[in-house]
Write a structure and sequence with these properties.
183 residues; alpha+beta; 4 strands
């Protein structure tokens, strides 16, 4: 990534090149990248493709040229699709849960700002109340996922999976209400 101007910190995070990013939300893994801010993800070809506005073939050719791999126009061997390890599957499940929690947390922040009461005696909007009620819990769950090792993921996700599903449903409900005219 540094070849293309992306400087990673010790944890493998950097500021995302695909959106205005004040703090590192772009994580690089052995097999690709994921941005916890804008949710961009993919492998190295997806990264180069998005970064330079290229299609997948052009991105692969750019990578080959940049790193002196040679002619990639002919590949006599069909690539083998390796099955993902249990840790990779667990990490994907954690990342999916992280994305749901981030989406919901953004909704909560929006509701706190949008529905903040003007006066102390005013009736509080239910979405403002939901934001007050759930923000700390979602922050806590994000911390749990952040600190979770891939091998511990099944136990954690068993414990909080129902809650994640409820938040996912809540996000879908909110998106549906926005489409149908509320707000």
């Amino acid at each position: 990534m540094e070849f293309y101007g992306i400087k990673l910190n010790k944890g493998g995070f950097a500021q995302c090149p695909f959106h205005a990013d004040d703090s590192p939300s772009f994580k690089v893994y052995d097999d690709g990248f994921y941005c916890f801010g804008c949710l961009e993800h993919g492998d190295v070809i997806d990264f180069v493709s998005k970064l330079f506005g290229l299609d997948a073939k052009e991105a692969a050719e750019k990578l080959a040229a940049d790193f002196g791999i040679g002619d990639i126009s002919f590949c006599p061997v069909k690539p083998v699709q390796l099955e993902k390890s249990e840790d990779e599957k667990n990490r994907e499940r954690l990342n999916e849960s992280w994305a749901v929690l981030c989406d919901y947390l953004h909704l909560l922040w929006d509701w706190k700002n949008q529905y903040l009461p003007d006066r102390k005696d005013e009736n509080w909007h239910p979405l403002f109340c939901e934001a007050l009620q759930n923000t700390d819990r979602v922050d806590y769950l994000l911390d749990c996922i952040w600190d979770c090792q891939a091998s511990e993921a099944p136990a954690l996700l068993e414990q909080i999976g129902g809650e994640i599903d409820r938040y996912r449903t809540r996000i879908e409900q909110e998106r549906g209400s926005e489409i149908h005219g509320r707000k």
